[in-house]
Amino acid sequence: MSDFDLDELRSELDEFAQPEKKGGRSPREERIIAGFEEIQRFVDKHGHLPRHGEGGDIFERIYAVRLDRLSALEECKVLLRPIDHQGLLTSAVGVDGAAASSLDDDALMKELEGAAGSSDITTLRHVRTSAEKREAEEIASREKCLDFETFKPLFQQVQADLESGARTTRRFVKDAGFLKADIQVGQFFILGGQTAYVAEVGEPIKAPNGETDARLRVIYSNGTESDLLLRSLQRALYKDDAGRRITEPSAGPLFDDQAGDSDQASGTIYVLRSKSDHAVVAANREILHKIGVTGGSVERRVANAKLDPTYLMAEVEIVATYELYNVNRAKLEAVIHKVFGAARLDVEIKDRFGQPIVPKEWFLVPLFVVDDAVSRIKDGTITGYVYDPKSAKLVLATTVDG
């Protein structure tokens, strides 16, 4: 055998003499890799690193803390570097350093528990509790708002109104009044440190508990949006200690920061005109108006007007509506009826069973005077004014009495 052959043989034997590379990984390493791959999938889907902050999705915040800790542990960095095709280990900024440092090795392993599966067939994988599912629904996954430029001027105007004092924010109280109130299109809130605008309210749906719910489109001032449920937004606002409602401009004296038992989320003053053939109604149709306040849809409220003596047992026309927020509806309605008390219609209507009814919310007053009254309610000057049928205008009560 030549020297060359001996060299080749020695080379081959040297290869056999290399220590066998261990192909398997420990359960600890499997959990670390599986946990890191979850973060990678998040980045692939959302296009950014998971971020800290109370306003973010709860799972995004978990991934952010996990990535901080994985980036801080040399053992993890060595293990993960070969599969870190996105450069996450070097991109983690560690915004929440305190949270990351508090997560020691044992805590990290516990947090990663189940990420790589379990050899125990009795262990359930990736099963969230009802509370976790509800939390995820309430926070909802926020996506980039592609038409945010359309809404941006609204947020700028609201901010300007807040700075000038034209709008204020109202503290939330968890009472029966707000629980029953509807969140409506056009309302602004503060949730998780962001201004939220209700851009759309979907068709009513029945929740499992029997309550009415709806899917919302909510736009946030940071350029994101979500499609959470109406009830979920309510609960999220209750849970957020800094959650607030932003009022409409010039709220006036009926809208105070001290929410009482009857304070409601919003109210609509509505003005209706009757289509009844009753002789008195027909003779005064142009100036005879029903004036009331509701917290829900005016259209739904009058849907069965022809069967209700309150609406003169006839169809009605919606002449005008005025939206107001954080209003005590009972007080507001009492003020309106006091102002127009002298023009209240005194007519008897029989219900479906022939029983006589005298409706209380119909007034012989022109629409332009109702406009004037609503303006005075908003700017706080309604106090002391009443409607004078002789002059067909609002006057100070002392003028009428004198």
Structure description:
This protein has 16 helices and 17 strands. Helix 2 (27-46) crosses helix 3 (58-72) and helix 8 packs across helix 11 (230-239). Residues 15-22, 95-103, 116-128, 134-140, 175-181 and 255-264 have low confidence and may be disordered. The protein has three domains: 27-127, no CATH class; 141-246, no CATH class; 266-401, no CATH class. It has helices spanning 3-17, 27-46, 58-72, 74-80, 88-91, 97-101, 105-111, 130-139, 148-164, 176-179, 230-239, 279-283, 298-301, 329-339, 367-379, 397-401, and strands at residues 143-144, 169-171, 188-191, 194-201, 205-206, 212-213, 216-220, 224-226, 244-246, 266-274, 288-294, 316-325, 349-350, 356-357, 362-364, 385-388, 393-396. The strands form five sheets. It has a seven-stranded antiparallel sheet with strand order 1-8-7-4-3-9-2, with helices on both faces. Strands 12-10-11-15 form a four-stranded antiparallel sheet. By secondary structure, it is an alpha+beta fold.
Largest sheet: 7 strands, antiparallel
Strand content: 15-25%
* Gross morphology: elongated
Q: Fraction of residues in helices?
A: 25-40%
Tally of separate domains: 3
In short:
This protein is of the alpha+beta class and 402 residues long. It contains 16 helices and 17 strands.
